[in-house]
Amino acid sequence: MQTYLQQSMFLESKTLEQYLEKEKIILLNNLPEYAKAHKLKSRHLYKTFQGVFAQGNLSLLCKPKVAIIGTRTPNQYAKQMSMQLATMLAAHGFAIISGGAIGIDSVAHSHTQEHAILILPCGIATSYPKENAAMIALLRQKGLVLSEYHNDYKPMKHTFLERNRLIIAWSDIVIIPQADMHSGSSSSANLAITLHKPLFVLPHRLHESLGTQALLQKQKAQCIYDIESFVHTMCATYHLTHEQVPKDPILAFAHANGLFEDALRLFGDAVLAYELEGKIKRNGLYIIPC
Question: What are phi and psi of 247, to 5 degrees?
Fold first, then answer.
């Protein structure tokens, strides 16, 4: 089996074992029985796993995988922190796995590209949502795109939840930067807890991101207070060295439309130097690349 698939190909469990840890495939195969034993009510957990259609770099499945998922309407703070988390984790050897939705998913994937694993809620040949078509096309070339559904199968309400079970089952770590109560992300968090996946969230102000706030209050998730410290700990846990560092963190921050005030706090006078050199410019309260 080749490492890179230029065209989509269906991979059964046996073939996937060449790339993905066997225990993760076993977990997914046994999920219906596991859900029944634990009296989990979500119907999507009872779907029988047959395999996935894949296109792109299969070797990404061999890496430790971090799921970064969350709301489709993140605030600016959650966008910035998600970008920094995804970029730093990818640079240190992790694959970033998500669902390609507008919001947190697309922020995570648009900054990791060749380190990104996208699992679609629709057919492997379909780009959904349409707003992310360019990003999905890029991930087919540089990253890895997976789907349980053939060709142009249309997304339906249940396929989003079925997609989410793959993301959680195949991840090693789950990060939810921002989520509402009773959302798809909250459902994924519950599955992560049930499957004993390490679950992390960001600190938020009162009355914001109530889904992650509830996880913290119930001590079901850990909080990321310092991104560099968190990444360092994860590297030590998964025996990863620093493969590389982001080529230009200030430009990456600008591409995420970060706040000028936050850029100064993070990068100091270098931000002003970039502005004078014409590399970035201010757009109201934010900075953007020139």
Answer: -60, -40
Beta bridge partners of residue 146, listed in sequence order? 54, 119
Could you give the angle at the alpha carbon of 113 between the alpha carbons of 103 and 243, nearest 5°?
A: 120
pLDDT-flagged residues of the chain (< 50):
243-246
Contact in structure between 121 and 162 (CB atoms under 8 Å):
yes
**272-276: Cβ within 8 A, 24+ apart:** 274/250
- Please tell me the pTM assigned to this model: 0.85
| Residues listed for the chain | 290
Amino acid 245: pLDDT: 47
- The shares of helix, strand and coil residues in the chain, as percent rounded to the nearest 5, are 45, 15, 35
Cα(27)–Cα(18) distance, integer angstroms: 16
Alpha helices in the chain (DSSP H): 13-16, 22-29, 31-37, 76-91, 104-110, 133-142, 157-170, 184-194, 210-217, 227-237, 249-255, 260-267, 270-276
CA nearest to 116, candidates 143, 89, 82:
143
pLDDT in tens, 92-141: 999 999 999 999 999 999 889 899 999 999 999 999 999 999 999 999 99
Q: Is 190 helix (H, G, I), strand (E, B) or coil?
A: helix
